[in-house]
Design goal:
The chain has 1 helix and 5 strands, in the order ββαβββ. Strands 2-1-5-3-4 form a 5-stranded mixed β-sheet, covered by helices on one side. It is globular and about 30 Å long.
Length: 68
């Protein structure tokens, strides 16, 4: 399935959760994966969602890059 994270489309497996999308995004962008737990994720409507929230195809999520 495809999910947009901060305007970047990522290919993820069916049943992926927010934490899986974050890990993929941080890997692609070569960011420090230890900072994943510090980010607050928002859905397309601006609502905060948990890292364990399930994702669906075409979903859009955003977060601000953490400061090291």
């Amino acid at each position: 399935m495809k999910v947009k994270v901060n305007r970047r489309t990522l290919e993820l497996f069916e049943g992926a959760r927010v934490e899986n999308a974050l890990l993929r995004y941080f890997t692609v962008k070569k960011l420090d994966k230890n900072l994943i737990d510090q980010v607050e994720v928002h859905d397309a409507y601006g609502h905060v969602i948990g890292h364990d929230a399930p994702l669906s195809d075409g979903q859009k999520i955003t977060f601000e890059h953490p400061q090291p």
